[in-house]
Write a structure and sequence with these properties.
It contains 19 helices and 12 strands. By secondary structure, it is an alpha/beta fold. The chain folds into 2 domains: about 10-190 and about 370-425, Glycogen Phosphorylase B (Rossmann fold, 3-Layer(aba) Sandwich), CATH 3.40.50; about 195-365, Glycogen Phosphorylase B (Rossmann fold, 3-Layer(aba) Sandwich). The strands form 2 sheets. It has a 7-stranded parallel beta sheet, sandwiched between helices. The chain has a 5-stranded parallel beta sheet with strand order 10-9-8-11-12, sandwiched between helices. Strand 11, helix 13 (about 295-305) and strand 12 form a beta-alpha-beta unit. The chain starts with 7 loop residues before the first strand and ends in a 5-residue tail after the last helix. The relative contact order is 0.12.
Protein backbone atom coordinates (compact mmCIF):
# COMPACT_ATOMS: atom_id res chain seq x y z
CA UNK A 1 0.00 0.00 0.00
CA UNK A 2 1.32 3.46 -0.88
CA UNK A 3 1.79 6.13 1.75
CA UNK A 4 -1.42 8.12 2.18
CA UNK A 5 -0.63 10.48 5.06
CA UNK A 6 1.99 11.73 7.49
CA UNK A 7 -0.44 12.15 10.39
CA UNK A 8 0.18 10.93 13.94
CA UNK A 9 -1.95 8.33 15.70
CA UNK A 10 -2.05 7.45 19.39
CA UNK A 11 -3.39 4.00 20.29
CA UNK A 12 -4.55 3.51 23.90
CA UNK A 13 -5.09 0.08 25.43
CA UNK A 14 -5.16 -1.79 28.72
CA UNK A 15 -3.16 -4.64 27.19
CA UNK A 16 -0.19 -5.14 24.87
CA UNK A 17 -0.90 -7.05 21.65
CA UNK A 18 -0.16 -10.78 21.92
CA UNK A 19 -0.98 -12.43 18.56
CA UNK A 20 0.17 -15.79 19.92
CA UNK A 21 -2.37 -15.53 22.76
CA UNK A 22 -5.57 -14.20 21.20
CA UNK A 23 -7.37 -13.18 18.03
CA UNK A 24 -7.68 -9.68 19.52
CA UNK A 25 -3.89 -9.43 19.59
CA UNK A 26 -3.72 -10.51 15.94
CA UNK A 27 -6.39 -7.99 14.97
CA UNK A 28 -4.58 -5.14 16.74
CA UNK A 29 -1.32 -5.97 14.96
CA UNK A 30 -3.24 -6.07 11.67
CA UNK A 31 -4.51 -2.54 12.39
CA UNK A 32 -1.05 -1.30 13.38
CA UNK A 33 0.46 -2.66 10.16
CA UNK A 34 -2.23 -0.95 8.11
CA UNK A 35 -1.63 2.40 9.82
CA UNK A 36 2.13 2.07 9.40
CA UNK A 37 1.81 1.20 5.71
CA UNK A 38 -0.51 4.18 5.24
CA UNK A 39 2.18 6.51 6.59
CA UNK A 40 0.95 7.22 10.11
CA UNK A 41 3.49 7.86 12.86
CA UNK A 42 2.23 5.58 15.62
CA UNK A 43 2.51 5.76 19.40
CA UNK A 44 1.11 2.81 21.37
CA UNK A 45 0.34 3.47 25.03
CA UNK A 46 -0.84 0.88 27.54
CA UNK A 47 -1.77 0.81 31.21
CA UNK A 48 -0.37 -2.73 31.47
CA UNK A 49 3.18 -4.04 31.75
CA UNK A 50 4.65 -5.81 28.74
CA UNK A 51 4.82 -9.58 28.90
CA UNK A 52 7.25 -12.04 27.25
CA UNK A 53 4.50 -12.71 24.72
CA UNK A 54 4.03 -9.09 23.60
CA UNK A 55 4.56 -8.86 19.86
CA UNK A 56 8.08 -7.51 19.14
CA UNK A 57 6.59 -5.97 16.01
CA UNK A 58 4.89 -3.32 18.16
CA UNK A 59 8.20 -1.63 18.96
CA UNK A 60 9.32 -1.98 15.33
CA UNK A 61 6.30 -0.15 13.97
CA UNK A 62 5.44 2.23 16.81
CA UNK A 63 6.86 4.22 19.69
CA UNK A 64 5.59 2.76 22.94
CA UNK A 65 4.87 4.25 26.34
CA UNK A 66 3.14 3.54 29.63
CA UNK A 67 0.02 5.48 30.52
CA UNK A 68 -1.80 5.89 33.82
CA UNK A 69 -5.50 6.15 34.53
CA UNK A 70 -6.74 9.13 36.55
CA UNK A 71 -3.39 10.86 36.19
CA UNK A 72 -2.53 14.28 34.72
CA UNK A 73 0.60 12.82 33.11
CA UNK A 74 -1.65 11.65 30.29
CA UNK A 75 -2.68 15.26 29.64
CA UNK A 76 0.98 16.14 29.19
CA UNK A 77 1.42 13.23 26.77
CA UNK A 78 -1.43 14.57 24.64
CA UNK A 79 0.04 18.07 24.62
CA UNK A 80 3.42 16.67 23.59
CA UNK A 81 2.23 14.28 20.87
CA UNK A 82 -0.58 16.43 19.45
CA UNK A 83 -2.14 13.33 17.83
CA UNK A 84 -4.28 13.66 14.72
CA UNK A 85 -6.03 10.37 15.48
CA UNK A 86 -6.62 8.59 18.81
CA UNK A 87 -7.72 4.95 18.89
CA UNK A 88 -9.28 3.51 22.06
CA UNK A 89 -8.85 -0.24 22.28
CA UNK A 90 -12.21 -1.35 23.74
CA UNK A 91 -14.90 0.76 25.34
CA UNK A 92 -13.49 0.57 28.90
CA UNK A 93 -10.40 2.46 27.69
CA UNK A 94 -12.59 5.02 25.93
CA UNK A 95 -14.47 5.59 29.19
CA UNK A 96 -11.22 6.25 31.04
CA UNK A 97 -9.37 8.46 28.58
CA UNK A 98 -11.70 10.00 26.00
CA UNK A 99 -12.68 13.00 28.12
CA UNK A 100 -9.01 13.97 28.43
CA UNK A 101 -8.60 13.63 24.66
CA UNK A 102 -11.78 15.72 24.23
CA UNK A 103 -10.21 18.46 26.37
CA UNK A 104 -6.56 18.42 25.30
CA UNK A 105 -6.73 17.15 21.70
CA UNK A 106 -10.21 18.28 20.60
CA UNK A 107 -9.40 18.14 16.89
CA UNK A 108 -8.15 14.54 17.01
CA UNK A 109 -10.31 11.95 15.28
CA UNK A 110 -11.51 9.54 18.00
CA UNK A 111 -11.83 5.88 16.96
CA UNK A 112 -13.18 3.06 19.11
CA UNK A 113 -11.84 -0.44 18.39
CA UNK A 114 -14.35 -2.91 19.83
CA UNK A 115 -12.74 -6.31 18.97
CA UNK A 116 -16.16 -7.70 19.83
CA UNK A 117 -19.29 -6.35 21.45
CA UNK A 118 -18.47 -7.01 25.09
CA UNK A 119 -22.05 -6.37 26.14
CA UNK A 120 -23.29 -9.04 23.73
CA UNK A 121 -20.76 -11.60 24.96
CA UNK A 122 -21.51 -10.95 28.63
CA UNK A 123 -25.26 -10.98 28.02
CA UNK A 124 -24.97 -14.39 26.38
CA UNK A 125 -22.80 -15.65 29.21
CA UNK A 126 -25.57 -14.77 31.67
CA UNK A 127 -28.00 -16.71 29.50
CA UNK A 128 -25.77 -19.79 29.63
CA UNK A 129 -25.42 -19.49 33.39
CA UNK A 130 -29.22 -19.52 33.52
CA UNK A 131 -29.23 -22.66 31.34
CA UNK A 132 -30.47 -20.82 28.25
CA UNK A 133 -28.56 -22.40 25.39
CA UNK A 134 -28.96 -21.18 22.50
CA UNK A 135 -28.14 -17.74 21.70
CA UNK A 136 -31.35 -16.32 20.51
CA UNK A 137 -30.43 -13.14 22.32
CA UNK A 138 -33.29 -10.68 22.58
CA UNK A 139 -31.56 -7.61 21.08
CA UNK A 140 -33.59 -5.03 22.98
CA UNK A 141 -32.70 -6.73 26.26
CA UNK A 142 -29.02 -6.57 25.28
CA UNK A 143 -29.08 -2.82 24.78
CA UNK A 144 -30.86 -2.32 28.08
CA UNK A 145 -28.14 -4.21 29.98
CA UNK A 146 -25.47 -2.24 31.84
CA UNK A 147 -22.63 -3.32 29.53
CA UNK A 148 -24.78 -2.84 26.44
CA UNK A 149 -25.64 0.72 27.41
CA UNK A 150 -22.07 1.61 28.31
CA UNK A 151 -20.74 0.24 25.03
CA UNK A 152 -23.44 1.99 23.02
CA UNK A 153 -22.63 5.30 24.73
CA UNK A 154 -18.96 4.81 23.92
CA UNK A 155 -19.82 4.22 20.26
CA UNK A 156 -21.83 7.45 20.11
CA UNK A 157 -19.05 9.45 21.81
CA UNK A 158 -16.56 8.24 19.20
CA UNK A 159 -16.23 9.57 15.67
CA UNK A 160 -15.84 6.06 14.23
CA UNK A 161 -16.14 2.56 15.66
CA UNK A 162 -14.41 -0.47 14.17
CA UNK A 163 -16.63 -3.56 14.16
CA UNK A 164 -15.04 -6.97 13.60
CA UNK A 165 -18.23 -8.91 12.79
CA UNK A 166 -20.82 -8.11 10.14
CA UNK A 167 -23.43 -9.68 12.42
CA UNK A 168 -22.64 -7.13 15.13
CA UNK A 169 -22.64 -4.23 12.69
CA UNK A 170 -26.12 -5.27 11.55
CA UNK A 171 -27.25 -5.56 15.17
CA UNK A 172 -26.09 -2.03 15.95
CA UNK A 173 -27.72 -0.53 12.86
CA UNK A 174 -30.94 -2.54 12.68
CA UNK A 175 -31.75 -2.91 16.37
CA UNK A 176 -29.90 -0.17 18.28
CA UNK A 177 -30.44 2.38 15.50
CA UNK A 178 -26.80 3.50 15.28
CA UNK A 179 -26.10 5.47 12.11
CA UNK A 180 -23.94 3.48 9.67
CA UNK A 181 -21.75 6.59 9.27
CA UNK A 182 -20.40 5.96 12.80
CA UNK A 183 -19.38 2.35 12.10
CA UNK A 184 -16.84 0.55 9.94
CA UNK A 185 -16.56 -3.20 9.33
CA UNK A 186 -12.94 -4.30 9.69
CA UNK A 187 -12.59 -8.06 10.32
CA UNK A 188 -9.62 -10.31 10.83
CA UNK A 189 -8.06 -10.92 7.41
CA UNK A 190 -5.91 -13.66 5.91
CA UNK A 191 -3.87 -13.50 2.72
CA UNK A 192 -4.51 -16.87 1.13
CA UNK A 193 -2.96 -18.10 -2.11
CA UNK A 194 -4.36 -21.54 -2.91
CA UNK A 195 -1.52 -22.53 -5.23
CA UNK A 196 1.31 -21.67 -2.82
CA UNK A 197 -0.33 -22.66 0.46
CA UNK A 198 -2.55 -25.66 -0.14
CA UNK A 199 0.10 -27.86 -1.72
CA UNK A 200 2.29 -27.64 1.39
CA UNK A 201 -0.36 -28.56 3.95
CA UNK A 202 -0.51 -32.09 5.42
CA UNK A 203 -3.42 -34.16 4.12
CA UNK A 204 -5.94 -36.35 5.97
CA UNK A 205 -3.69 -39.38 6.43
CA UNK A 206 -0.78 -37.26 7.70
CA UNK A 207 -2.79 -35.91 10.62
CA UNK A 208 -4.16 -37.48 13.79
CA UNK A 209 -6.07 -36.65 16.98
CA UNK A 210 -8.37 -33.75 17.84
CA UNK A 211 -7.37 -30.37 19.21
CA UNK A 212 -8.99 -27.30 20.73
CA UNK A 213 -7.41 -23.93 21.40
CA UNK A 214 -8.30 -20.70 23.19
CA UNK A 215 -6.92 -18.17 25.68
CA UNK A 216 -7.83 -19.32 29.20
CA UNK A 217 -8.36 -15.70 30.29
CA UNK A 218 -11.41 -15.66 27.99
CA UNK A 219 -14.56 -17.07 29.67
CA UNK A 220 -16.09 -18.57 26.48
CA UNK A 221 -12.97 -20.68 25.96
CA UNK A 222 -12.95 -22.06 29.50
CA UNK A 223 -16.63 -22.90 29.21
CA UNK A 224 -15.99 -24.70 25.89
CA UNK A 225 -13.21 -26.83 27.44
CA UNK A 226 -15.50 -28.02 30.23
CA UNK A 227 -18.36 -28.55 27.76
CA UNK A 228 -16.00 -30.74 25.74
CA UNK A 229 -14.71 -32.66 28.72
CA UNK A 230 -18.05 -33.36 30.37
CA UNK A 231 -20.55 -33.62 27.50
CA UNK A 232 -18.97 -34.06 24.07
CA UNK A 233 -15.63 -35.85 24.38
CA UNK A 234 -16.99 -38.92 26.23
CA UNK A 235 -19.32 -39.54 23.26
CA UNK A 236 -16.47 -39.22 20.77
CA UNK A 237 -14.07 -41.32 22.81
CA UNK A 238 -16.65 -44.12 23.06
CA UNK A 239 -16.59 -44.46 19.25
CA UNK A 240 -12.90 -43.63 18.77
CA UNK A 241 -11.08 -45.16 21.78
CA UNK A 242 -7.61 -44.52 20.31
CA UNK A 243 -8.21 -40.84 19.60
CA UNK A 244 -7.00 -38.07 21.89
CA UNK A 245 -8.10 -34.48 22.43
CA UNK A 246 -5.33 -31.97 23.16
CA UNK A 247 -6.35 -28.60 24.61
CA UNK A 248 -4.08 -25.62 23.92
CA UNK A 249 -4.39 -22.07 25.19
CA UNK A 250 -2.42 -19.15 26.58
CA UNK A 251 -2.49 -18.52 30.33
CA UNK A 252 -3.54 -22.02 31.34
CA UNK A 253 -2.87 -22.34 35.07
CA UNK A 254 -2.00 -25.49 37.00
CA UNK A 255 -5.63 -25.57 38.05
CA UNK A 256 -6.71 -25.66 34.40
CA UNK A 257 -4.22 -28.43 33.64
CA UNK A 258 -5.84 -30.51 36.38
CA UNK A 259 -8.89 -30.68 34.13
CA UNK A 260 -6.92 -33.28 32.15
CA UNK A 261 -8.13 -36.89 32.11
CA UNK A 262 -5.19 -38.86 30.64
CA UNK A 263 -7.04 -42.13 30.97
CA UNK A 264 -9.70 -40.74 28.62
CA UNK A 265 -7.26 -39.12 26.18
CA UNK A 266 -8.25 -35.61 27.31
CA UNK A 267 -5.08 -33.52 27.85
CA UNK A 268 -4.77 -29.81 28.71
CA UNK A 269 -1.38 -28.81 27.35
CA UNK A 270 -1.33 -25.02 27.83
CA UNK A 271 0.21 -22.51 25.41
CA UNK A 272 0.90 -23.87 21.93
CA UNK A 273 4.63 -23.60 21.10
CA UNK A 274 3.82 -22.52 17.53
CA UNK A 275 0.18 -22.33 16.47
CA UNK A 276 0.89 -22.85 12.77
CA UNK A 277 2.82 -26.10 13.32
CA UNK A 278 0.34 -27.37 15.90
CA UNK A 279 -2.64 -26.81 13.61
CA UNK A 280 -0.88 -28.57 10.75
CA UNK A 281 -0.51 -31.77 12.74
CA UNK A 282 -4.08 -32.40 13.97
CA UNK A 283 -6.99 -33.82 11.99
CA UNK A 284 -9.96 -31.95 13.50
CA UNK A 285 -10.41 -28.78 15.57
CA UNK A 286 -13.22 -28.79 18.14
CA UNK A 287 -14.68 -25.41 19.14
CA UNK A 288 -18.06 -25.91 20.89
CA UNK A 289 -18.50 -22.28 21.95
CA UNK A 290 -21.76 -21.79 23.82
CA UNK A 291 -21.46 -18.01 24.08
CA UNK A 292 -19.24 -15.26 22.75
CA UNK A 293 -19.16 -12.43 20.24
CA UNK A 294 -17.00 -11.04 17.47
CA UNK A 295 -15.06 -13.36 15.17
CA UNK A 296 -13.54 -16.62 16.41
CA UNK A 297 -9.92 -16.36 15.31
CA UNK A 298 -9.25 -20.03 16.05
CA UNK A 299 -11.70 -21.07 13.33
CA UNK A 300 -10.26 -18.70 10.74
CA UNK A 301 -6.72 -19.80 11.58
CA UNK A 302 -7.77 -23.44 11.32
CA UNK A 303 -9.17 -22.73 7.84
CA UNK A 304 -5.89 -21.07 6.87
CA UNK A 305 -3.82 -24.09 7.96
CA UNK A 306 -6.15 -26.61 6.34
CA UNK A 307 -7.56 -27.92 9.62
CA UNK A 308 -11.29 -28.82 9.40
CA UNK A 309 -13.41 -27.95 12.41
CA UNK A 310 -16.67 -28.67 14.20
CA UNK A 311 -18.22 -25.79 16.11
CA UNK A 312 -21.56 -24.21 17.09
CA UNK A 313 -23.68 -21.51 15.49
CA UNK A 314 -21.95 -19.03 17.80
CA UNK A 315 -18.57 -20.20 16.53
CA UNK A 316 -19.60 -19.51 12.95
CA UNK A 317 -21.26 -16.17 13.69
CA UNK A 318 -19.80 -13.50 11.44
CA UNK A 319 -17.83 -16.11 9.45
CA UNK A 320 -20.52 -17.84 7.40
CA UNK A 321 -24.11 -19.01 7.59
CA UNK A 322 -24.27 -22.29 9.55
CA UNK A 323 -26.52 -23.71 6.81
CA UNK A 324 -23.70 -23.21 4.31
CA UNK A 325 -21.11 -24.97 6.45
CA UNK A 326 -21.93 -28.52 5.26
CA UNK A 327 -23.62 -29.17 8.59
CA UNK A 328 -20.39 -28.98 10.62
CA UNK A 329 -21.94 -26.91 13.38
CA UNK A 330 -24.25 -28.12 16.09
CA UNK A 331 -25.35 -26.85 19.47
CA UNK A 332 -26.25 -30.21 21.04
CA UNK A 333 -23.52 -32.46 22.53
CA UNK A 334 -24.82 -35.56 20.74
CA UNK A 335 -24.95 -34.00 17.28
CA UNK A 336 -21.67 -32.16 17.79
CA UNK A 337 -19.97 -35.42 18.76
CA UNK A 338 -21.40 -37.31 15.79
CA UNK A 339 -20.29 -34.66 13.34
CA UNK A 340 -16.82 -34.73 14.90
CA UNK A 341 -16.62 -38.50 14.50
CA UNK A 342 -17.72 -38.29 10.85
CA UNK A 343 -15.18 -35.60 10.05
CA UNK A 344 -12.41 -37.59 11.77
CA UNK A 345 -13.14 -40.84 9.92
CA UNK A 346 -14.47 -39.78 6.51
CA UNK A 347 -11.67 -38.45 4.31
CA UNK A 348 -14.06 -37.13 1.65
CA UNK A 349 -16.09 -35.16 4.19
CA UNK A 350 -12.84 -33.92 5.71
CA UNK A 351 -11.56 -32.63 2.37
CA UNK A 352 -14.90 -30.94 1.58
CA UNK A 353 -14.76 -29.13 4.93
CA UNK A 354 -11.20 -27.99 4.32
CA UNK A 355 -12.03 -26.78 0.81
CA UNK A 356 -14.96 -24.79 2.18
CA UNK A 357 -12.63 -23.12 4.66
CA UNK A 358 -10.27 -22.04 1.88
CA UNK A 359 -13.20 -20.63 -0.11
CA UNK A 360 -14.48 -18.67 2.90
CA UNK A 361 -11.09 -17.05 3.48
CA UNK A 362 -10.73 -16.04 -0.16
CA UNK A 363 -14.27 -14.71 -0.56
CA UNK A 364 -14.84 -13.01 2.81
CA UNK A 365 -11.56 -12.27 4.60
CA UNK A 366 -8.99 -11.23 2.03
CA UNK A 367 -7.09 -8.11 3.22
CA UNK A 368 -7.37 -6.44 -0.19
CA UNK A 369 -11.10 -6.07 0.51
CA UNK A 370 -10.67 -4.15 3.77
CA UNK A 371 -7.31 -2.42 4.25
CA UNK A 372 -7.45 0.41 1.71
CA UNK A 373 -11.14 1.22 2.39
CA UNK A 374 -10.42 1.68 6.11
CA UNK A 375 -7.34 3.81 5.49
CA UNK A 376 -9.27 6.02 3.08
CA UNK A 377 -12.24 6.26 5.48
CA UNK A 378 -10.02 7.50 8.31
CA UNK A 379 -8.37 10.13 6.12
CA UNK A 380 -11.74 11.26 4.77
CA UNK A 381 -13.06 11.72 8.32
CA UNK A 382 -9.97 13.67 9.30
CA UNK A 383 -10.64 16.03 6.42
CA UNK A 384 -14.36 16.40 7.17
CA UNK A 385 -14.43 16.08 10.95
CA UNK A 386 -16.55 19.15 11.72
CA UNK A 387 -19.38 18.11 9.39
CA UNK A 388 -19.19 14.52 10.64
CA UNK A 389 -19.51 15.59 14.28
CA UNK A 390 -22.35 17.97 13.53
CA UNK A 391 -24.34 15.02 12.17
CA UNK A 392 -23.75 12.97 15.34
CA UNK A 393 -26.34 14.73 17.48
CA UNK A 394 -26.61 11.92 20.02
CA UNK A 395 -22.85 11.92 20.51
CA UNK A 396 -22.85 15.66 21.11
CA UNK A 397 -25.62 15.27 23.67
CA UNK A 398 -23.67 12.56 25.52
CA UNK A 399 -20.58 14.73 25.66
CA UNK A 400 -22.60 17.60 27.07
CA UNK A 401 -24.14 15.40 29.77
CA UNK A 402 -21.28 13.07 30.60
CA UNK A 403 -18.13 15.14 30.30
CA UNK A 404 -18.48 17.00 33.56
CA UNK A 405 -19.32 13.94 35.69
CA UNK A 406 -16.53 11.84 34.14
CA UNK A 407 -14.02 14.64 34.51
CA UNK A 408 -14.85 15.34 38.12
CA UNK A 409 -14.80 11.69 39.14
CA UNK A 410 -11.37 11.23 37.56
CA UNK A 411 -10.08 14.45 39.11
CA UNK A 412 -11.40 13.33 42.51
CA UNK A 413 -9.55 10.00 42.24
CA UNK A 414 -6.43 11.83 41.10
CA UNK A 415 -6.47 14.23 44.03
CA UNK A 416 -7.25 11.44 46.48
CA UNK A 417 -4.22 9.47 45.29
CA UNK A 418 -2.02 12.56 45.55
CA UNK A 419 -3.18 13.12 49.12
CA UNK A 420 -2.51 9.47 49.98
CA UNK A 421 1.03 9.67 48.56
CA UNK A 422 1.66 12.91 50.42
CA UNK A 423 0.63 11.37 53.76
CA UNK A 424 2.89 8.37 53.20
CA UNK A 425 5.85 10.53 52.18
CA UNK A 426 5.85 9.38 48.54
CA UNK A 427 6.66 12.08 46.01
CA UNK A 428 5.79 11.87 42.33
Amino acid sequence: MQKLTDSTVLILSNVWPEPSSSAAGSHMMQLIRLLHQSGYLITYGSTAAKSPHTSPEVTQLADTCSIKMNDASFDELLKELKPDVVIFDRFMVEEQFSWRVYEHAPDALRILNTEDLHGLRRFREKQIRNNVFHLKTTPKELFHSDDGRRELASIYRSDLTLIISQTELNLLVDVAGVRAALLHYYPLTYSYDKKSEQSNLPDFNERRHFMSIGNFHHPPNKDAVLFLRDDIWPLIRKELPEAELHIYGAYATESHKKWSQPENGFLVKGRAPEVSEVMKSYRVLLAPLRFGAGLKGKLLEAMYFGLPSVTTDIGLEGITDPHLWEGWSSNSPESNAQKSITLYTDSMAWRRNRSQGFDILRSRFDPSMFDLPLAERIISLQNNLYEHRMANITGGMLWHQNLMSTRYMSRWIEEKEKASKSKSGIHA
